[in-house]
Amino acid sequence: MYRGVREFEQAVPPEALLGVVWDVRAYPEFVRGVKRVEVLEESERAAQARFTASMAGLEFEYVLEMTRDEREVRWQRVSGSFKDAGGRMTHLGGKRFRYENWLDPGFHVPDFAVRLVLERNLPRLIREFQDRATAAAARAAAGRGRAPS
Predict the structure, then answer these.
(1) Which domain range does residue 30 map to?
(2) Of residues 90, 21, 29, the one with CA closest to residue 49
(3) What residues contact 19, with CB distance under 8 A and at least 6 apart?
(4) Does residue 148 form part of some domain?
(5) What is the spatial distance between Cα 124 and Cα 62, in angstroms, rounded to a whole number?
(6) Residue 80 backbone zone (phi > 0: left; psi -120 to 50: alpha; other: beta)
(7) What is the tens place of the pLDDT at every residue in 139-148?
(8) CA distance 102 to 113
(9) What are phi and psi of 70, to 5 degrees?
């Protein structure tokens, strides 16, 4: 099992960042490597979606079950590529957030590949979420006629 954890600060309302993480339909627009997302089931606090993604020239398809509350979005592999996978984005309070992701591909992955994901791809993914949330918060603030807090 490979695990990546990063804590960071984001100067947007927590619902803006968690909303971006929850909005999986938009991932192909801004998350590098995500080619397609099909939402299979959805309610206000739970969803299931099929993802088609690529990394290092390999394509993966998997289904994630997602849940959310006011401080966290969680996901867990249900079927498809990988033996196990999951994660969460958690608002820790104030401007602090934690992103966790874990993956068991079901086979040995060379250390250099794990380092690549943890040291380059994970921070890039967090930046993609942050950039999208900053833009969403700015649009929301403009709609209310004031600058984002």
Answers:
(1) 2-141
(2) 21
(3) 133, 136
(4) no
(5) 21
(6) left
(7) 988 987 765 5
(8) 14
(9) -70, -15
Q: What CATH number should be reported for the domain holding residue 86?
A: 3.30.530.20
Q: Is residue 146 part of a domain?
A: no
Q: Is residue 6 assigned to a domain?
A: yes
Backbone CA torsion sign across 133, 12, 18, 55 = positive
Residue positions counted in the chain: 149
Quick check: is 149 in a domain?
no
Examine the pLDDT at 149 and tell me if it is beyond 70.
no
Cα distances (Å, whole numbers) of residue 70 to 92, 132, 134: 11, 19, 18
Q: How many domains does the chain have?
A: 1
pLDDT band at 106 (very low <50, low <70, confident <90, very high): confident
Residue-level pLDDT at 1: 79
34, β-bridge pairs:
53
